[in-house]
Design a protein that fits this description.
It contains 10 helices and 4 strands. With about 260 residues, it is an alpha+beta fold.
Length: about 260
């Protein structure tokens, strides 16, 4: 198969110009693509077009809103080199964790994976860890960073109105936690404490390297890295966060830059 026909298509959420990735779950998948040296190209999708894109590709939503309704989001990966269970040409995968499993399997089949995304017999542990990290950042970091997401000005008003409706407020501005306010200072301190108690203790080999296993990266590091990318792009206190817990998060983010290319 020639290079063009083997190149995967990666659907990611478009920011405002210049277009760049900022959402955590697409970043997890992008890291995984680069980590496994998978050829791909990015198809940028405006936020208001995400639901229609999933519908057009016939990829069912894999997440739910708090009220139980479908939450169509990205990433999606199209792999033209494999056949789906429905015997259609190519495979479409619409969840970042499932994308990582797919890429890990292809990497293992290709060259054994050195190192693999998932060390042997760790899929269940990784799935649990993914849920833990998602919850920690959603409850503590996203509420501080979400107001500052780099929306495309061309669609920003539509996006803001939709997000305000989903979270049950009348105006997007109601979601702002003003910088410098006492409320924000308390919440930032709470975020630091949550990372300190709920995630930093997992790094038990810090003298050996910046990753959870010291010098050897794995998908668990990428899970955290995806959220750190959102914080870098959206959180005003990003430089402060980098230095928390002895610089742990800044060191991990910097170490993952090797796999942060945007293709």
């Amino acid at each position: 198969m020639d290079a063009q026909k083997s190149t995967m298509t990666f659907y990611d959420i478009a920011s405002g110009p210049p277009v760049h990735p900022f959402a955590p779950n697409p970043w997890k998948a992008r890291y995984a693509l680069n980590f496994t040296k998978t050829p791909y190209r990015t198809e940028w999708v405006a936020l208001p077009d995400v639901a229609a894109t999933r519908a057009k590709l016939r990829v069912p939503p894999c997440r739910k809103h708090a009220d139980g309704s479908d939450f169509p989001t990205l990433p999606i990966l199209y792999d033209p080199t494999t056949t789906s269970p429905m015997q259609q040409e190519g495979t479409l995968i619409g969840d970042s964790f499932d994308i990582a499993i797919h890429l890990n399997n292809k990497q293992s089949a290709r060259n054994g994976g050195s190192p693999p995304l998932f060390p042997p017999n760790t899929l269940a542990l990784h799935r649990t860890f993914n849920a833990h990290v998602d919850n920690l950042f959603t409850m503590n970091g996203a509420v501080l960073a979400g107001y500052y997401m780099p929306f495309d000005p061309a669609t920003a008003e539509t996006t803001k109105a939709d997000m305000a409706r989903r979270v049950g407020v009348s105006r997007w501005e109601d979601l702002e936690i003003p910088q410098g306010s006492e409320q924000r200072k308390r919440m930032v301190a709470g975020f630091e404490a949550a990372l300190g108690s709920g995630l930093a203790p997992w790094f038990i080999r810090r003298d050996e390297g910046p990753f959870l296993e010291g010098a050897t990266p794995m998908y668990a590091d990428i899970i955290i890295g995806g959220w750190l990318q959102m914080m870098r792009n959206c959180l005003p206190e990003w430089q402060e966060l980098r230095g928390w817990h002895g610089g742990l998060w800044g060191k991990l983010h910097d170490a993952l830059e090797e796999w942060a290319q945007v293709s």
